[in-house]
Amino acid sequence: MNQIGVRHDLVAHLRGVAELAAEFAAPLGAPEVARLVGLWHDLGKFHPEFQRYLERCEADPSHRGHGPDHKAAGSCVAMRRLGPLALLIQGHHGGLRTPTELKAWLEMRQADPAVAEAITLAADAIPDLEPGRPSNVPSHIEGNRRSAELFMRLLFSAIVDADFLDTERHFDPDKGRRRAAGVTLSELWRRFEADQLRFHAPHPDDVVAHERRIVYEACLAAAGQKPGVFRLNVPTGGGKTRSAMAFALRHALANGQRRVVVAVPFLTITDQTAGVYRSIFETKGDSMPVVLEHHSQVREAGHDEGAPDLASTWARLSAENWDAPIVVTTTVQLFESLFSNRPSHTRKLHRLAGSVIILDEAQALPSKLLRPILDVLRELTQHYGASVVLSTATQPAFEAIVDFDAVEAVEIVPDVRRMFAALKRVEYDWRTTPPLPWPELASLVGAESQVLVVCNTKRDANRLLDELDDAAALYLSTALCGAHRRDVLAEVRRRLLNGEPCRLIATQVVEAGVDLDFPVVFRAVGPLDGIIQAAGRCNREGHLEAGRVVVFQPAEAAAPSASYKVGIGVTASMLGDGPIDPDDPGTATAYFRSLFHLVDADANRIQPLREAFNYPQVDELFRMIEDDTESVVVAYGSAGQRREVGRLTDRLEAGSPEARGVLRKLQPYLVSVRTQLAARYRDRGLIRQLMPGVGRWLGDYDPVRGLTGDDP
């Protein structure tokens, strides 16, 4: 029963889900199929035993335990009428299984008299339970198992979302009203145009601003084209964040698309990107926010203590199904949802149909998963009205990947080489042979007043810091908790702005969308896209005639991972013929072609599993980031901050019932540690377990280097 004592009528629920599912599946080309699946999904609840179970729950709200099976009846009807689509009903609570599991599951239940009784009772209550004409599925999935696999995922998403929303509509009707942001894409475009005039006005004679304007106008010119795959190949600092959104909004309006989804590769960029868009689109007069930020560190916002405000409630509700005009998320959240079998993760997927998806820093997609990722993106653009924008300064040669080789991507900026030449802001100094000993490198770095050094590993960065005779040098890596990294970046920006000495020794964490502007950058030989990203932190705003990027080969250097080592090898091979020009877009193309030739783009064999409709295995094996780390809480900050961290950690250790909310508050004070290293730390008494995957750091936390140890 809901808050006013009204029971959710079963027939009304089934019809409500059927109508919502049909609406959600219209962009998938299968509204009538979705209507039937929605109508059948809870037929087992007609059985008297299930009704008695509901009465027991109403009489005793503390009653726990699963009720009688309510999925078999609808699954049997669906199997008879729609074949394998019965998987959607079987999995609408527990998750999608395999056809083999479905068959065995149904064989055990088809002979159950309770199933037949429930179907009979349902037919009496719903005269149009089984229409005479079977509904058709989209023709493009016939004979193509991977197309059918994705279609079933998207249809599953529509059913699950419809089920959630109809239930919510009965038990908490106010929630639905709190979901809608109420701002149209047309209104967002009006706000964008007004902001764009202000953005460009102060820089009429600035070369960088002039080139950004050219990028912006190219995006507007290309926006009228039909949905498909687009490349936005623009140098770092060329205004991709704004121009990509300009293209997306105009393109969506031209093609009747519904929302813009911006996916970035790193958590460090999400706040920054979402902040830029909020400053453009959100006004004080809005009743709700319009930019939804959805990733792992904001996922638990609705479980915090106390009464959430209206904006945070909207964010939590919208994050459940991405019902927002602009979504900023991570590529991890986007793609692990696309390959998940779990209802809560897949619920949002039908919203991708008819959306513009911007993949920021597209070159950062993991090589070993490129075949399934690109295959799904191709399907979304060819059959579901979506568009994909590959936005990067180092455009990867995705056409070299099987399953994407026939896709004709449209170049948004027509004269890419001219653009890169016009925005060339650095000169490269190659110091790759012979390798530089650490003392010599430290001497070169020490001779610069303001300099950024990017090393390949934490061990290398610490080695250089040891050699550098500079007590004021700063350090940045994942050994620092998020709050510490933010403080370091703030101090770096302050010193650079005031012209003070500033030497920052960092790992690749500084390359991910961090807006810094050094006159000199040293970068260890690494994957070419990493070198180009590091160069993007040099003379970023073009205030110097030319910044200087020194690419060096460190002595006794290591790579942080096997895939990273392959990238280093490709770069080294290209350097074998002499210095290269990273500012030439053709250099990046050649690099990625060589890289993709060496890597297995479906290393986890996701594609064969998709062809077998093995949804659980795909869910298990599709991991954007190898989950071989644990998190530890560190005591960082002022005395007051450390006391608060200690208080929250004590609550977590005591088994607080609000553990999820407490953990969210501790997020800025977490450091990831490799699982094997964490085990050694535990043996030494340096980590005490708080909950699975989370521990309390009992060792020292260095004010410069953070959590120190032998972690590379």
SSE inventory with pairings:
Blueprint: H1 10-25, H2 31-40, H3 48-59, H4 72-82, H5 86-90, H6 99-109, H7 113-125, H8 145-171, H9 173-179, H10 185-200, H11 207-222, E1 229-233, H12 240-255, E2 259-264, H13 267-281, E3 291-294, H14 310-321, E4 326-330, H15 331-338, H16 343-346, E5 355-360, H17 370-383, E6 387-392, E7 410-411, H18 416-422, E8 426-436, H19 438-446, E9 450-454, H20 458-467, E10 474-476, H21 482-498, E11 502-506, E12 520-524, H22 528-535, E13 547-554, H23 562-575, H24 585-598, H25 606-611, H26 615-621, E14 629-633, H27 639-653, H28 659-666, E15 670-674, H29 675-683, E16 687-691, E17 694-697
Helix pairs in contact: 1-2, 1-8, 2-4, 4-7, 8-9, 10-12, 11-12, 19-20, 23-24, 27-28
Number of domains: 4
CATH fold call of the largest domain: Rossmann fold
Please give the largest β-sheet. 7 strands, parallel
β-sheet strand percentage: 5-15%
Structural class: alpha/beta
Shape: globular
Taking the alpha carbons of the first and last residues, their distance comes to 56 Å
- Highest-level CATH class of the largest domain: Alpha Beta
Give the integer mean of the pLDDT values.
Answer: 89
Counting DSSP H or I runs of 4 or more residues, the number of helices is 29
- The total of beta strands comes to 17
Assigned CATH superfamily of the largest domain: P-loop containing nucleotide triphosphate hydrolases
Supply the CATH architecture of the largest domain. Answer: 3-Layer(aba) Sandwich
User: What share of the residues lie within helices?
Assistant: 40-55%
Give the low-pLDDT segments: 297-314
